[in-house]
Amino acid sequence: MGEYSFKEDIVQGEAGEDFVIEYLTKGWKGNLLEKKKDFTWDFKLRFKDGELIQTFELKTDVFCVPDTVINGRTIRGKDTGNIFIEFSCRGKDSGIKVTQADWFVYYYKFLGELWLIKVDQLKDLIATNDFKIGVGGDPGSNSSGYLIPRKKFRDKFLVRTQVFEEAFSL
Question: Is the pLDDT of residue 126 over 60?
Fold first, then answer.
């Protein structure tokens, strides 16, 4: 894991949140009810003519970048192959340990992928596996999280690929 700029992370995170909200409101036919700026959840949507209300915790990853071919040369991207599920930051419980969301969404902006999982299923996945722990975040944050190998556990998530193309054609 690396060290990142918190201010830049916030801007990227909010842009990712807006994109995912638009994707879910169009693709899943939801209506945005509320956005929050605390640890409980990030946004709340209403589905099925008001019968179902769901909350979402969203993480936007702008550090995974696919390989690119320019003039016949492959420029290697960067990708750890993991989903980083934070559980501690600045010496306090955070992320998966404190969220009250119904859904956890991981948005890979440059890979064009959304990985969705119900929070209770994610907690069960973590409890029944011995995932490596990664450390990263901004200087001094001492953020820690579970490193879930994406390929190995893809079947546990609802994965939407090419979300840029899909978002506005659903």
Answer: yes
